[in-house]
Design brief:
The structure holds 2 protein chains of 2 kinds. Chain A is 43% helix and 22% strand. Chain A is of the alpha/beta class. Classes of the chains: A alpha/beta, B mainly alpha. The complex binds adenosine-5'-diphosphate (ADP) and magnesium ion (MG).
C-alpha cells in the first residue's frame, strides 16, 4: 500500500501478498494476510475448511479482486491484471474441484495449457500452413514429456470427462505444468484421493520441485503431507494468518493446534497431538 | 503401419485431417463421386445430375458453408447465437452492392465476384466483432435472446433500406456467379450459363455446383484446421470452462471475439453465395426461421464436429424434399385408393371433411406441408437432444464402432 517496502526485502521474492483483505458482503474471507514466496520454495497454506485458502489462490490468479492490500509479482503489482495476463506472467494452477475441459481429450487439455507458449493467430491457424504445423509439433513434444512424467500415456486420447477422479486430478496438474509456469498453485491436490493416489501425487510434487525446479504454493487439508514436503507453512483460520514458519515450528504452535483440534486440546493434550501429527508425517514419508 | 491402423510414427502424421490411408482413400473416392454428379456418370446417383436436383444440392452447399460458421460459434466456442441470418444478410447485401448491377432505385458497383465475396465475409466479420463484447457480458440463453434482437433490427433495416435490399417482398437481383477478372464484360469464367467446358457440356446448375463444391470443401478444411490448432482449442476451453480457460491464459474476450468474427465471416460468404446461387431474394427471408434452420443443422448433425455439420446440412436440406414427395405420394394413394390409402388417409387431408393431420389443399384446415416440415424439424431436434447428443455424427460413430467390433459385438 502506501508504505514502500525496502528494496532489499522486495528483491528475490517471486510473489508477495501484502496485507490483503477480501470480503464478500460481510464475510471476511481473507483478513490482512501477508506472506511471500521466493523462487525455488515449496510454500504451503493450511487451515480448516472455509479458512480462506482457495480465496487466496483466487486473488493470486486474478479471479477475486481484494478490497485492500497489494499482490506483487516480481515486485510489481498484479492487482489490475486479468487472469489470463497473470497466466502469461507465468502463474499456473490447479483447482480444488476439478476444472478440466471435459469434452476435450487429455492431449487437447494439455495442449491448451501450452496456449500462452504458442503464437498462432486467426489466419495462421485457419490455413494451418508451415508455421502453425511446426508450432503444433514442437508443443506436442513438450506435452508428451509431461505425459511421460505423469505416467498417463494410456489416457492420451481419452475425453477427460470420462476418466476416474484420481486421473483427472493428475491431468489437471499436467495442464498446469504444460504452461511451464514459474509459480504453480496447487489447491488440495490430494483431496478425495485414496492412499495410493495420494502417494503418487506426493511423488509428483516432489519431482516437480526437484526435476523441474518449479516454485509451488500448496494448499492442503492433509497436514501430514504438508509437514512432510513443505519448506515453509502458513496456517490460516477464519481468514486470518495464525502462524507461519517451518513445518516443525508451526507444529509446536499452540494456536495451530487449537485451530485444528478445538479449544479443549490446547493445553493438556498438546503433547499427544504433536506426537500424532509427527506420526502422520512419518507415515507419509515412508509411503513416498 | 498399414497393419496397425492406429499406430502413428510421428506427430506430423497424427495431426493430419485424414491420418490413415483408408480415410484418405475413402475421402478421395467420395470427392470424386461428388465431382461427377453434374455429369450423371455414377450409377445410382445419376438423378442428382438433373438441374432441379443440382439446384437443391447447390443450396445445400451454401447452407453447409454458413452452418460450418455457426458450428464454430455454437459447437466450438459454445456461444448460442440466433443471429446467424442477420450476419448472412450483411454478407449478402455487401455482395449485392459490390457485384450487383445498378438501377435508378438500386445501388450496385458491378465489381467482380472474386472481390465481392471475401469483402462480404469481412463485412459480416466486422459486424461480428462489434457484437462480440455482448457475448462476454451475457451468457447462454440470454445471448441467444440478444442475438435474436439482431435479426429483428436487421428485418427493420432491410425493409427500409431499399437502395440496398430492393422493394419489400420482391427484393433485388444479385450479380451473376462469374469470375470475371475485373471488367464484367471482359474474359470471365461463367458459372451462370449453360455451355461447354473442355468440350463437355455442363449446365449452369452443374457449373454452379462445381464452384460451390470447391468453396464448400475449402471452408470444411479451414474449419478442420481451426479445430486442430491453438485457436480452436481456446474456443473449446472457453466453452467447457470459461474461468479455468482464463486462468490457463486464454482471454475470454479475445476468444469470443475471434469466434464471432470467424463465424460471421462464414455467414457473410454463405449469405452472399445464397443470394448469388438463388439469383434474387426478398428482404424478408433473413428471419428467425432461417437462423433456427442453421441451429437445426448443427443440433441434428452433432454440435462441434465438422462431419456432423455436413450430415446435418444434407439432412435438413433433403427433409423438405422427402416430406414433399411423401405427401405427394400419399395424395396419389388417397386419390387412386392404392395400397397405402388407409394410412395415407390418416395422415393427409385433401378436403375439409377429411380426418388427416396434413392438409394438401391451400388454406385447408390442419397443418400445411410447410408447417408439417417445421414440426418435423422440431421433433428431430428434440429427439436428437434426448437420445443422441452427438447427432447424426453420433449415429454414424455407433454404426462404425459396431462394424469395427463385428462379429465380436459387445
Ligand atoms: N465467491 C464467493 N462468494 C461468497 N463467499 C465466498 C466466495 N468464495 C469464498 N467465500 C467465503 O469465503 C470463506 C473462505 O472460503 P475458501 O477460500 O473457499 O476457504 P478454503 O479454501 O480455505 O476452504 C468462506 O466463508 C466462503 O464461504
Ligand atoms: Mg478451498
Amino acid at each position: 500500500m502506501t508504505a514502500v517496502a525496502p528494496q532489499a526485502e522486495t528483491e528475490g521474492h517471486l510473489v508477495e501478498f501484502d496485507s490483503v483483505k477480501l470480503s464478500f458482503k460481510g464475510v471476511v474471507a481473507v483478513n490482512q494476510v501477508s506472506f511471500h514466496v521466493d523462487s525455488g520454495e515449496l510454500f504451503s497454506i493450511i487451515g480448516p475448511n472455509g479458512a480462506g485458502k482457495t480465496s487466496i489462490f483466487n486473488c493470486l490468479s486474478g479471479l477475486y479482486k481484494p478490497q485492500e492490500g497489494d499482490i506483487r509479482w516480481r515486485g510489481e503489482s498484479i492487482l489490475k491484471l486479468k487472469p489470463f495476463q497473470i497466466a502469461e506472467l507465468g502463474m499456473g494452477r490447479t483447482f480444488q474441484n476439478i476444472e478440466l475441459f471435459e469434452h476435450m481429450t487429455v492431449l487437447e487439455n494439455l495442449m491448451t495449457g501450452r496456449h500462452i507458449r504458442m503464437k498462432g493467430g486467426v489466419l495462421a491457424n485457419l490455413v494451418f500452413a508451415g508455421k502453425t504445423k511446426t508450432e503444433e509439433i514442437e508443443n506436442r513434444a513438450k506435452v508428451e514429456d509431461i505425459i511421460d512424467f505423469l505416467e498417463i500415456e494410456r489416457w492420451r486420447k481419452f475425453p477427460v470427462g470420462m476418466m476416474p477422479y484420481g486421473m483427472q486430478k493428475r491431468v489437471e496438474l499436467g495442464r498446469a505444468l504444460a504452461m511451464e509456469p514459474d509459480l504453480l498453485l496447487l489447491d488440495e491436490p490430494v483431496a478425495g484421493m485414496n492412499l495410493e493416489e495420494t502417494e503418487d501425487m506426493a511423488r509428483f510434487i516432489l519431482d516437480i520441485r526437484e526435476e523441474l525446479g518449479i516454485t509451488m504454493i500448496l494448499v492442503e487439508h492433509d497436514m501430514a503431507l504438508v509437514m512432510d514436503i513443505a519448506d515453509r507453512v502458513m496456517v490460516l483460520d477464519f481468514g486470518q494468518k495464525i502462524a507461519d514458519g517451518t513445518p516443525a515450528e508451526v507444529q509446536k504452535n499452540p494456536d495451530v493446534i487449537r485451530a485444528y483440534l478445538g479449544e479443549e486440546f490446547a493445553s493438556d493434550d498438546l503433547k499427544e497431538v504433536e506426537r500424532e501429527l509427527e506420526g502422520d508425517a512419518i507415515e507419509a514419508a515412508e509411503g513416498s | 503401419m498399414r497393419g496397425r491402423p492406429n499406430l502413428y510414427t510421428s506427430y506430423e502424421d497424427e495431426q493430419k485431417i485424414l491420418p490413415t490411408v483408408t480415410q484418405r482413400v475413402t475421402m478421395g473416392a467420395f470427392l470424386l463421386a461428388t465431382v461427377t454428379v453434374p455429369f450423371s456418370v455414377v450409377p445410382g446417383l445419376r438423378f442428382l445430375g438433373t438441374p432441379g436436383w443440382l439446384q437443391i444440392l447447390n443450396v445445400m452447399l451454401v447452407f453447409l458453408v454458413a452452418a460450418l460458421g455457426l458450428n464454430i460459434l455454437i459447437g466450438f466456442a459454445g456461444q448460442v447465437s440466433l443471429g446467424h441470418a442477420f450476419f448472412m444478410a450483411v454478407g449478402a447485401y455487401t455482395a449485392a452492392v459490390l457485384a450487383g448491377s445498378p438501377t435508378q432505385a438500386l445501388w450496385g458497383l458491378e465489381l467482380p465476384l472474386w472481390f465481392a465475396l471475401p469483402i462480404a465475409g469481412l463485412a459480416a466479420a466486422a459486424v461480428g466483432i462489434v457484437v462480440a463484447p455482448t457475448a462476454v457480458r451475457v451468457r447462454g440463453l440470454y445471448l441467444a435472446i440478444v442475438t435474436l434482437g439482431l435479426v429483428f433490427i436487421g428485418a427493420h433495416i432491410f425493409r427500409n433500406w431499399n437502395q440496398v435490399t430492393g422493394v419489400p417482398e420482391l427484393g433485388r437481383d444479385w450479380g451473376p456467379l462469374q469470375l470475371a477478372l475485373w471488367d464484367i464484360d471482359g474474359p470471365a469464367l461463367r458459372f451462370d450459363k449453360d455451355g461447354d467446358w473442355f468440350g463437355v457440356f455442363v449446365s449452369a446448375e452443374g457449373k454452379t455446383f462445381l464452384f460451390m463444391l470447391v468453396v464448400a470443401v475449402g471452408f470444411v478444411v479451414l474449419s478442420k484446421n481451426l479445430a486442430r490448432s491453438r485457436l480452436g482449442r481456446s474456443f473449446a476451453a472457453i466453452r467447457d470452462r470459461d474461468i479455468a480457460a482464463e486462468v490457463m491464459g486464454v482471454s475470454e474476450v479475445k476468444a469470443k471475439t475471434q469466434a464471432f468474427a470467424i463465424s460471421s465471416f462464414y455467414a457473410g460468404v454463405g449469405g452472399a453465395l445464397y443470394a448469388t446461387v438463388v439469383g434474387a431474394l426478398q428482404p424478408e427471408i433473413w428471419n428467425l426461421f432461417l437462423s433456427v434452420e442453421f441451429v437445426a443443422i448443427i443440433l441434428i448433425g452433432g454440435a462441434g464436429t465438422t462431419a456432423g455439420v455436413v450430415l446435418g446440412a444434407i439432412f435438413v436440406q433433403t427433409l423438405p424434399r422427402i416430406v414433399e414427395n411423401t405427401t405427394a405420394f400419399l395424395e396419389v394413394q388417397v386419390e387412386t385408393q392404392g395400397w397405402f390409402a388407409p394410412i395415407a388417409d390418416l395422415i393427409i387431408r385433401t378436403d375439409g371433411a377429411d380426418l388427416g393431420i396434413v392438409s394438401t389443399v391451400n388454406n385447408g384446415p390442419g397443418l400445411s406441408v410447410a408447417q408439417a416440415n417445421g414440426l418435423l424439424f422440431g421433433l428431430f431436434i428434440v429427439l436428437f437432444l434426448i437420445f443422441e447428443p452427438l447427432g447424426l455424427y453420433g449415429v454414424w460413430l455407433r454404426i462404425r464402432n459396431y462394424w469395427k467390433g463385428w462379429p465380436f459385438t459387445y
